[in-house]
Write a structure and sequence with these properties.
Helix content: 10-25%
Shape: elongated
Number of helices: 1
Largest sheet: 5 strands, antiparallel
Number of strands: 5
Number of domains: 1
Structural class: alpha+beta
Distance between the termini: 30 Å
Low-confidence stretches: none
Mean pLDDT: 80
Strand order of the largest sheet: 1-5-2-3-4
Oligomer: single chain
Order of helices and strands: HEEEEE
Length: 80
């Protein structure tokens, strides 16, 4: 039981960590939180291909320039 709880805690914390784009990228079209640690901006967006060019676009359709990190969005709360 204790081991399962520790595994669950580790999994939750790992899912809330920033992932460097040099380590791994999200799936194409997956909405994620994106940041540039150098220019200090954070946004929600996704990546996609236009021809051979990889774009990162924000939800407001503005191009996100050179993100350094990303993380999955948390689950939405249940509505009651």
């Amino acid at each position: 039981m204790k081991a399962q709880i520790l595994d669950d805690i580790t999994r939750v914390f790992a899912s809330q960590a920033w992932i460097p784009v040099t380590d791994r990228l999200p799936e194409m079209g997956e909405r994620v939180m994106v940041c540039n640690a150098i220019d200090e901006w954070v946004s929600i967006g996704h990546r996609h291909l236009t021809g051979a060019y990889l774009h990162w676009d924000g939800d407001d359709h503005e191009e996100l320039h050179e993100p350094t990190h990303w993380m999955p969005l948390p689950e939405l709360p249940e509505s009651k």
